[in-house]
Prior knowledge:
The protein is mainly alpha-helical. The chain has helices spanning 2-33, 38-69, 82-112, 125-160. It contains four helices and no strands.
Amino acid sequence: MKTLLRTLLFLALIVWLGAEVFFPVIAAVTFTTLAPNTHAAGSIVGQLLRILHWMGLISGLVALLLLAIAPTWRIYKSRSVLIPMVLLLLMIGATAYSQFGIIPSMERDRIAAGGAIDTSDTNSPQTIHFNKLHRRSTYVEEIVLLFGIAAVVFVARAESVRA
């Protein structure tokens, strides 16, 4: 049972971080392939980002639950799971902020700018705000990835001090 729980924990982390690592590649290929039609590329990437976020939220909650019960099953020592749990909470919070805060606001700006942000006036308040949110979204994804890598490091450390 211990091996199963540890395997599920690793799988949850792998799914989330693998998607985080692969997402920029997918975005780049999409924008390159659809180069003349950045609106279509943006729509596709936006949908994929929503999927990434749901994968992350579910995987994060699963990993958090498994880390919470790990000391009870004597898989890890209680103190060794605290930092990865905090990192997972921060990752979940950042992902939720992006999914339920940044993306809907970007969508409102896109609609207010006439439906396609790439054809709107670059000096319009909606375009400026959209671009600001896009940069913020990128930073949030980078933070989630860095915290995820750190969480993996601390889970690996917990493996070395297992109960």
